[in-house]
Write a structure and sequence with these properties.
- The complex is a heterotrimer.
- By secondary structure, chain A is mainly alpha-helical.
- Chain A is flat.
- Chain A has 12 helices and 2 strands, in the order H-H-H-H-H-H-H-E-E-H-H-H-H-H.
- A two-stranded antiparallel ribbon of chain A has the order 1-2.
- Chain A folds into 2 domains: 99 residues, no CATH class; 156 residues, no CATH class.
- Chain B is an all-alpha fold.
- Chain B folds into 3 domains: 107 residues; 166 residues, no CATH class; 34 residues.
- Chain B contains 15 helices and no strands.
- In chain B, helix 7 packs antiparallel against helix 8.
- The radius of gyration of chain B is 24 Å and the shape is flat.
- Chain C folds into 2 domains: 30 residues; 119 residues, no CATH class.
- Helices cover 18% and strands 37% of the residues of chain C.
- In chain C, a hairpin with a 5-residue loop joins strand 8 and strand 9.
- By secondary structure, chain C is an alpha+beta fold.
- Classes of the chains: A mainly alpha, B mainly alpha, C alpha+beta.
- Chains in contact: A-B, A-C, B-C.
- The interface between A and C is large, with 52 and 52 residues.
Chain lengths: 325, 367, 161
């Protein structure tokens, strides 16, 4: 799949590289990890898995909802564990993985504490409040922790909080939101997060370099606006195309192209963009042809889908030549 | 993981006298996400082709035999197209062939399975997909055929009531494919999509299993497919399944140790094997974690980020599923998690003491 | 520097949480006990263990004008402590025996105190016969659900105070 691997296999097949030298070539390419890389990997895996398991254990424990234990005892217990995690993070400092893993555990324990609070004093607070307070209280930690995993957790919490808020209230203070508009609200949240992330990465914040996190955000935002656009198209007659998601979709398309083709090449985002355009385009075309009906419209739509996807695939392959993964 | 460009790699290899002369032109490679794009669009196209054929040949397609033959015809055409496309037209031809093949498969299957008997129908389906797998040289198509073949085998075995074992068997079966594809450039285009198809099938199946289990009904599969009654094997299956997954884990660990040149059954390698046995035992209550770990190790060992990410996703899914499983008390689950967490951290500590980074680098400089 | 911010943030959030705990404890200690008849409905909450979905009969007295609002009911307690509806609070001063009770209106659904009761995993059977919800109510109408009671007004399940 990766360019290097394909190249090496190719060279073998062409006879330029002996098959028995294949593993060595893989090693030099950095595809096969050396002993040091293994050491680091195992260290990291054990650390984060251990921290996650311990924090989960606490969450499960309090989810059990012991009735024999007095609620104040439980609250004191979970807070001591929280303090413990913070102490560990303080001890190891926040500039290395051990401290950051401890901070992640502390953030998860914060959630456990808030959940226990809600469970102990059943006032009927809306569910979104748990995640909202969790996100707000954890924000300073996330800012200071400087780890992409912490940020993604935080963005996940914000998404949950917003979704549950809209679920409970059905809209913001200015009135009710349709499903489509609710999706757009979430879209804006994730797009904002993506924008800020890319901006910070551009400015050279070193720990934000990995591409996987912005890609997750991009997928979330892209998925949301594509769904919103499709929903709008399905619900309304084509004549009202401009009334459904006015301008937002084309603007998003233009923005993504501008940024991820011209400014900072990212094939993943472009592939997602292509898929979105194909889906929306097919739907628009389908609506236009629905009046004719019959086999011909299926044929035309089929040609459109196949043609556009083949073109997108070729375009992306060509772009791949310009950049290394 | 900073990787060199193919050009730089060529230069490095030339310096080590593994290759000579000028580098051949860069091959074209697309990321896994482009394949997903093409796959989804291919499916959309297939549905439209089906719609086209459906409206055109409406009355004809009411007969099962007509559907079967039309399906074979469509797939045959697709096979031809896959081989025929050249140069700039190849992408277009391939994509059309993909849509045509998928549509043909749907027609064929709907024709063969029309009055559903099971038995020989499964065999016909399996053979059909086996043939497609062999004939069509396209990566995505092979992956898909392998996936469907696994599904057919799963449903077939459902008859034998050992459904849950498919996950473990599928994973085990994929291992030689992963290991061997690295060594044989000739078989690689065949083995690789097969391996991916198996793993995706296993993951999909596990995910579905989780989802259904979380609804508290382990007998769902057998009942929904019309097979009645509890199976006499039922109590053995979770153990067997976990055993198969654990076996996969140990094989991967063994393979890695072997590649690193660490003897397996002697002191340097033994603790690692022991640790993997321990991990396998600890994760028994939480199915899926063994698979997740296996995928992560395999992915890292082969520099395959996709596998690594799949393993990570599987781990998260397994932990969430663990919460909803009803066969254990939440308090007990908490204890299991806490115990495992402590063991992991202790292992890390042990690793730091007995194999510190400095010693590793030293060993590498000399060795 | 970063570590110091982390500690300060930790202290701040612990203070906020414990302040919340103190407030709620005061409500539980000083609040008036009120029983509300159930019009009940049960699944697994995100992160919060087993719970039972609840609906109070009093909720039907509140008509769904406007979509999202918070308001107050005025009730009196009978001899056994069961709440009886008097009126929607419109600001008129309360009589001697009248109590305020807050409610939430969410898209036409009325919620008084909690709409779910959380209990220990596996104890769902104990609560099958619940007919009343037991609340602790403060002067301003804020209420905490403290337990469930059966048809004879006897408390169900272990008490955690």
């Amino acid at each position: 799949m990766s360019l290097l691997r394909v190249a090496i296999i190719d060279w073998c097949r062409q006879g330029r590289l002996a098959s028995r030298d294949l593993p060595r070539a893989m090693e030099r390419a950095g595809l096969y990890p050396d002993t040091a890389a293994w050491r680091v990997f195992l260290d990291r895996l054990l650390l984060w898995a251990g921290a996650a398991f311990l924090a989960s254990a606490v969450i499960y424990f309090f989810a059990f909802n012991w009735q024999e234990m007095h609620r104040l005892v439980k609250l004191a217990l979970v807070q001591s564990l929280l303090i413990g995690a913070v102490a560990v993070a303080w001890y190891f400092r926040l500039d290395n993985e051990r401290g950051q893993a401890a901070l992640l555990a502390a953030t998860l324990l914060l959630g456990a504490t808030l959940a226990l609070f809600g469970q102990s004093y059943q006032t009927g607070a809306d569910t979104y409040e748990l995640f909202l307070y969790w996100a707000l209280l954890a924000l300073p930690w996330v800012l200071v922790g400087r780890h992409p995993a912490l940020w993604l957790l935080w963005i996940g919490l914000s998404n949950l909080a917003l979704t549950l808020y809209l679920d409970a209230f059905g809209g913001f203070w200015w009135g009710r939101l349709s499903d489509q508009e609710a999706m757009l609200a979430l879209f804006w949240l994730n797009l904002l997060a993506l924008g800020l992330w890319e901006f910070a990465a551009w400015r050279g914040v070193s720990w934000l370099r990995g591409r996987w996190a912005p890609r997750i955000l991009g997928t979330a935002a892209g998925g949301l606006i594509t769904s919103a656009q499709i929903w709008g198209l399905v619900d309304h007659p084509l004549g009202r195309l401009l009334a459904t998601v006015p301008l937002m979709y084309p603007l998003w398309v233009a923005g993504m192209y501008f940024f991820y083709r011209l400014r900072r090449l990212d094939l993943f985002m472009l592939a997602g963009l292509s898929l979105s355009l194909i889906l929306v385009g097919t739907l628009i075309l389908g609506k236009m042809l629905a009046f004719r009906g019959g086999a011909l419209s299926f044929l035309l739509l089929g040609i459109f889908v196949i043609g556009s996807s083949a073109a997108a695939g070729t375009w992306l392959k060509r772009l791949a030549q310009e950049v290394e993964e | 993981m900073k990787r060199p460009t193919p050009e730089r790699l060529w230069a490095i290899l030339r310096r080590e006298a593994l290759v000579q002369g000028e580098m051949p032109p860069r091959p074209s490679a697309s990321g896994w996400y482009v394949r997903i794009l093409l796959g989804v669009a291919g499916w959309l196209g297939a549905l439209l082709v089906l719609g086209f054929l459906g409206t055109l040949l409406h009355s004809l397609l009411r007969h099962g035999s007509a559907r079967t033959s039309l399906g074979v015809l469509a797939c045959g055409l697709a096979v031809g197209l896959f081989h025929a496309g050249t140069g700039s037209k190849k992408a277009m031809a391939d994509q059309f062939a993909l849509a045509l093949s998928l549509a043909g498969q749907v027609l064929f299957l709907s024709g063969v399975f029309d009055p559903f008997h099971g038995g020989w129908q499964w065999l016909v389906g399996a053979l059909f997909y086996g043939v497609l797998l062999a004939l069509v040289p396209d990566f995505l198509h092979r992956l898909w055929c392998a996936l469907i073949l696994l599904v057919i085998l799963t449903l077939w075995l459902g008859n034998l009531r050992m459904l849950s074992l498919l996950g473990g068997l599928g994973t085990l079966a994929s291992l030689p494919l992963w290991f061997y594809s690295e060594r044989s450039p000739v078989l690689d285009p065949f083995l690789r999509p097969l391996a991916y198809g198996l793993i995706l099938g296993v993951l999909g199946f596990q995910g579905l299993d989780f989802f259904l289990l979380s609804l508290g009904d382990p007998g769902f599969w057998t009942r929904s497919l019309g097979f009645s009654g509890p199976s006499p094997w039922a109590s053995w299956v979770p153990w067997l399944s976990h055993g198969l997954f654990s076996l996969s884990l140990w094989l991967v660990v063994g393979q890695v140790l072997q590649r690193e040149g660490i003897p397996l059954l002697a002191p340097p390698g033994l603790p690692w094997l022991a640790v993997s046995v321990l991990i396998a035992l600890l994760t028994f209550p939480a199915p899926g974690l063994t698979l997740a770990l296996t995928l992560m190790l395999l992915g890292f060992a082969q520099g395959n980020r996709v596998l690594l990410a799949l393993g990570l996703a599987a781990a998260v899914a397994s932990l969430s599923h663990f919460y909803y499983q009803l066969h254990l008390n939440l308090a007990v689950k908490a204890a299991v998690l806490a115990g495992t967490g402590l063991v992991l951290l202790a292992l890390r500590q042990w690793l730091a003491t007995w194999l510190p980074m400095g010693k590793v680098r030293e060993g590498m400089d000399h060795g | 520097m970063a570590e110091r911010i982390m500690i300060v943030a930790a202290l701040a959030l612990l203070a906020a949480i414990n302040f919340g705990i103190a407030t709620k404890e005061r409500l539980l200690a000083d609040g008036r006990v009120l029983l509300l008849e159930l019009a009940p409905v049960d699944p697994r909450s995100l992160m919060q263990g087993d719970y039972m979905a609840l609906r109070f009969a009093l909720a039907n007295k509140v008509s769904g004008t406007g979509t999202n609002q918070n308001g107050k009911l005025v009730v009196t307690a009978d001899q056994q402590g069961v709440a009886v509806f008097r009126r929607l609070d419109d600001g008129t001063p309360l009589a001697q025996d009248e109590l305020l009770l807050r409610y939430r209106l969410r898209q036409g659904r009325v919620q008084i105190a909690s709409n779910a009761f959380f209990f220990q995993e596996g104890k769902a059977g104990d609560y099958a016969g619940a007919r009343y919800g037991e609340l602790r109510v403060a002067g301003n109408g804020e209420a905490i659900l403290t337990g469930l009671r059966d048809a004879n007004l006897a408390p169900i399940g272990a008490r955690t105070d």
